[in-house]
Amino acid sequence: MFTSTWRSLAPRPLNRVTLLGAMHDVQRGFLGQSSVFQFTLTCLLFEPPKREQAEKKPIATPPSPTAKGGTSQFVKEQYTVRCMGDEAYTEALNNTLEAGCIVRVIGRLKTFEVTEGGKKQLFPTILVEQGRWSHVALLHSLRRQRRDWQLQNALTETRNSK
């Protein structure tokens, strides 16, 4: 009883991000001694109309994402998602997730500075570390419908084996 109370009172991370999108550019490898499963997540975000447009049209109708002419109010953003943990964790992710899947990612946002050709650029990266406060959940797959239960079982097995 004391441990369950202690876990509920444990400090949670302040920098926590939840994203939903389609994954592509899947890679797997090692970074130092930890195994890494990395992919790019493309999110479709709705951008509200600018103030001048809102004053002209008091009644707003949602625009079609494929509408021609005018300004599109949907914006695509891409994030690199880096899942880090032991080899069994990344193997479970690799066996279940594939390019084109729709996933929900809960992790920590970190900006990495990359220097290319004398230019310094900042890249947003979502870190998903094996543990309690971050995870990747499969929502939809074109080939494998609803294989989320297999992913969750594999991840709980790797968590309990430690």
Automatic annotation (TrEMBL):
Top-rank taxon, per record: Eukaryota
Region (Disordered): 52-72
Xref: InterPro entries: NA-bd_OB-fold (IPR012340)
Gene3D superfamilies referenced in this protein's UniProt entry, alphabetically: Nucleic acid-binding proteins (2.40.50.140)
Protein's recorded name: Uncharacterized protein
Upper classification of the organism: Eukaryota, Discoba, Euglenozoa, Kinetoplastea, Metakinetoplastina
